Every structure is written in C-alpha cells, then in structure tokens.
From TrEMBL:
<dbReference type="InterPro" id="IPR036085">
    <property type="entry name" value="PAZ_dom_sf"/>
</dbReference>
<feature type="domain" description="Argonaute linker 1">
    <location>
        <begin position="30"/>
        <end position="82"/>
    </location>
</feature>
<dbReference type="InterPro" id="IPR014811">
    <property type="entry name" value="ArgoL1"/>
</dbReference>
<protein>
    <submittedName>
        <fullName>Argonaute, linker 1 domain</fullName>
    </submittedName>
</protein>
<dbReference type="Pfam" id="PF08699">
    <property type="entry name" value="ArgoL1"/>
</dbReference>
Amino acid sequence: HAVSPQEALQILDIPLRELSTQKSYRSKYCPIGSSFSSPEIGTPQCLGEGLEWWCGFYQSIRPTQMGLSLNIDMSSAAFIEPLLVIESIAGERCVFPDIV
C-alpha cells in the first residue's frame, strides 16, 4: 500500500505531538486536536458558568514550494474551571468563606 502525501504529513506530525505530550509535560499541556493548551501559557481567563479559557498553540507540518514548513500559531480553548463543589453550587467563588 502506497502512502499518500496526506498520510506522510500525518506520520510526520506524530513525533511533533509526542514531544508536547511526553510524560514530563503532561501536567503542562492538554492536547486538543492539533492544539495544545496550558494554564501556564498566559493567565487563564474566567468565562463564567464554571468555565475558563486557556491560551495555547497549534502546530502542523505543511507542504510548501520549498519543501516542508512547520506551522505554529496561537490558539485558545475553554476548560471547566477548577472549583470546589460548594463554589460551583453557589455559582461564585468563596460565597461561603467560613466553609471554604
């Protein structure tokens, strides 16, 4: 079975993704498709309703007239905000400071 150009690019993307998701980086980068997000890239921003967005980056290998090119761009994604159950139920942070 011959490998198509698209399959070849996907094969080249594998080590690129692996570098960002190695065990030592798992706590830092969350992979979503071809993007990687982290609360350590910029400051997470509250979206309300228990959600926040994290900055990240998108990466891919693209064919060009000169050969292959590494494409890296900024991205962002929404994540569930790490809240205590009582904060989540209250809909705000630290509504009950004596309990939390």
